[in-house]
Fold this sequence. Notes:
Layout: E1 2-6, E2 9-13, E3 19-22, E4 25-28, H1 35-40, E5 44-47, E6 56-63, E7 68-74, H2 81-100, H3 104-113, H4 119-141, H5 145-150
Parallel strand pairs: 5-7
Antiparallel strand pairs: 1-2, 1-5, 3-4, 6-7
Amino acid sequence: MKAIEINGKIKTYKxxxxxxxxxxxxxxxxxxxxxxxxxxxxxxxxxxxxYDSVTQQISNLHFDGSVFTYDVTDKVFTQTLEExxxxxxxxxxxxAGDLLKPTDWYVVRLAxxxxxxxxxxxxxxxxxxxxSDAAELEIDALETIAEVLKYQIVLVE
Length: 157
């Protein structure tokens, strides 16, 4: 990615434009210029800093003298730790529900007609429920909002 500052505003380009107007002259095949040649016209590389998108954000694209880059700042969370935990536990419940849905008819059949649930289905459902319960306990043990947001829900192998 390239960027140029024009009249105090930074404009980014995925790649150099095919044509570029410079001081009244149109340069054809501008996109074929080397980095050094493009820099002579004010186009510099945009360097994306390494950051944790869960807990940090990028802002303020600026020129640092050799490249354009962003500042990295910590995100301000609007949820409390308890609210974040409740949201994540709700995600666990929803995923468990989605995984149980295909076999729910066995449970209905048992309740309505007393037809037993096959053991492999019972085992599969119990494994989902056990992992769901364990995930909720793990979430409750987390100590920061960042840990909660980064928690990966795995209910099936």
